[in-house]
Amino acid sequence: MMSNENRMTIDGAEVAFQPGETVLEVARRQGAFVPTLCYDERLDPYGSCRLCVVEVEGRRLPASSCTLKAESGMEIRTGSDPIRKMQSTLMEMVLSENPDDECPRCRDIGTCEVHDLAEKLEVGRERFLGAISNASKDDSNPFLLRDYDRCISCYRCVRICDEVEADHAITMTGRGWNKGIATAFDGGLMDSDCTLCGQCIYTCPTGALADKKMVGQGEIPGEVEVTRSVCPYCGTGCSINLHSRDGKMIGVTPVLDGPVNEGALCVKGQFGFDFVNSGDRLTRPLIRKNGELTPVSWDEAFDYTAQKLMSVRADHGPKAFYAIASGRAPGEGSYMLQKFTRAVMNSNQVDNCSRG
Amino acid sequence: MSNSIPEIEDAKMMLCVGTNMTECHPIIAVRVKKAVRKGAKLYVVDPRKIPLTEYADGHLPLKLGSDVALFNAMAKVIIDEGLEDKEYIEERVEGFEELKAHLQPFTLEYAEEISGVPAELIRECAIEYAKAESAGIYYTLGITEHICGVSNVQSLCNLALITGNLGKKSAGVNPLRGQNNIQGAGDCGALPNNYPGFQSVEDPACQEKFEKAWGVPMDPKKGITKIAALDHAVDGRIQAMWICGENTLVTDPDVKHTTKALESLDFLVVQDMFLTDTAKLADVVFPAAAFTEVDGFFTNSDRRVQRIRKAANPPGEAMPDWWIISQVAQRMGTSVDFEYQSSEEVFDELAALSPIYAGLTYDRIEKGDLSWPVPDKDHPGTPILHEGEFLNGKGKLQLLDYVPPSENPDEEYPFYLTTGRRLPTYHSNTMTGRSGGFRILVPNEWLEIHPADSDRLGLADGDWARIKSRRGEVITRVAVTRTSPRGTVFMSFAFPEEVMTNFVTNPEVDPRTETPEFKVAAVSIERVEAPSGLGAEQALRADPEGPGLV
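Output (structure tokens, whole complex):
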């Protein structure tokens, strides 16, 4: 006989769960459609948007599944008509305060969570049409677009700044219609404790916060490709997703299951990628001719280099050559340079840049 | 690092030494801040009042280069108070009685005199460190960029060894590496004394292994370090150099010396993404593809081997580093195999020849959850080094003496200059300076100076000053700040086109690692008028989002 321990029912199917899991986590693993707006897997459950409501057998009122811990024997219904109706109404209320003009995030970066959910729940903003907060902030920082007209008060930005980045540079202010997001003394981000790490952008489910570097890149043709990689700056090794379009880098987002950063990034990792697009990248091999570095073909550069190094080796011996490998470039290049030094130039005259 | 980064969050005590973590390793700093929230103690040892001190239970603002005196005194406190881990010492450590005797002169009073840190604070820090269930030491170049860098590291290792903090979770001795793949470069054998996987070039068994693998004789003598190589370039013993992805001219100490070295070469090859100041001196420049344009790997501070992947196309004819080098090799009439079809083939060869990478493949490093050593294909990786036993038997305590910095303030050069990075400007700014927006955050270099010092010199915030050492001088703006202690000023080296900080820095090296003492130079400071052409208008460039200079 099967024990009832750590098993529950979701939409009629019996499922196992791990102690400590929330009903939302179990239901989503089962493939149930449970919408959320204030939820981010990196954050503590918050339960403010109420979209994740489910019916719990034996309870009079629906419960928010993100804050409800799974219990043995629980019976949950996720998508009943009353639940969908509640969710649709909640969504309509969210949308009613959201501007009707084009969402820059949807246009240039990818459909935001609010507009994605509106489509899935098939609702619009007409029914409760309300005023717009006009809380937008003109912020002079170079990286973060702050358009709080679109804010839905899920406070994911405030919580990510606190819980994931441990910075606590922004907070919620006011009550009711006057509620908002602010820095200490309500100034611009650059006049606050904000380090411009940009992680609030990535968690924001609306177009209230957006990456200024990505906005405006919508003109580049083709689909956005997302490629997992690792940050090229310090030695922490944060996992990043590279966003590219038509073979060109357009942005970076954190990898949520990156083993080192677990979805956190700093200002360099988040915004310091576009040096690769810099107009002054070297594009051709160069050889100094009559004192000037002159573009040549790869063949000419290779032959010239090989011939010069062979004559240095012949005339001055293996130790007259020295190679310095990069602590910045991928390891395969460093391996190749030391192999070249040891197996072709016949010495151990190789080092990397760690000494200074 | 002896321990992994995620473990930091569960440390009970953290001793952060010479590491401006929130600016230089911000995401490691997140772990430290989270540990503090969970109740861990944090002590910061740094001459400057860096942002991390705001989270700390104690800040020990030591004088530059006084680390050994300070940490020896801490070890003495721990032993005098009977707080050492006797069982661990008995089982795993040697030289305890010798250390105990050696530490006798390192009284709190002596340490206070040398380091300037109040005796009571040193004692408190020592006791908190020793009492904690798991205490981690985290350090960066503030420890290693000294003429006594090795001793500094060893003085920290002594603390970990006598308290049993090496070889267990959320503890250890943890250098935070400053560059994304500096660990990987060493792992790959780009070192004068080691083949890939830290196998000694002077060990006949290792020589034989590589002779067999590559089919040619190996040089049985180790090479010289990069620092010595620049000297050899000056005196003609080195005629040709190949520099990959390093702006040597800007980032090495004593720029005049570096320039002379590179100009003395008969043949210089530079492989880079940009025409850096170093590349401008080259005879051949190879255009390298960026990390976004190639497949490969980076190995980070906690020995985690991670995949990077091609997401974009390189500009023009730029190519991956490994390919460029293999092509030159193939044209040198060698019998050694340099025909590779992909970066993965290169990685597989590295793994086959390096016991610490032996169990790694591109498939296994997909998600970056393996830290070396990974000796075989089923091995789960080694997030914590030295668990149970040390590789070479027992942990040997070191008897260390305090050696003052090679340069100290005198009448002519009355200030200490120390150097480092700032959050938005990485190193020589080759990358951050070319990324849109960063010039708005930090538009130019400045000298950080304590108000007591600036008052004495008649300097106000925003004034210009000449900073002069025995090697050279620079002119820069001044920022009056209490971040710097009295008598010590700070600069970064991120704006070489305007302020070449390394004209001033000290090229004296630690005799064992040949790492220069970037962290200490004696300088004089005097107020000057804003130089023409370098006024405020240059600080706020017309197009701050445009590409910066090198």
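Chain A has four domains: 7-79, 102-211, 224-277, 286-355.
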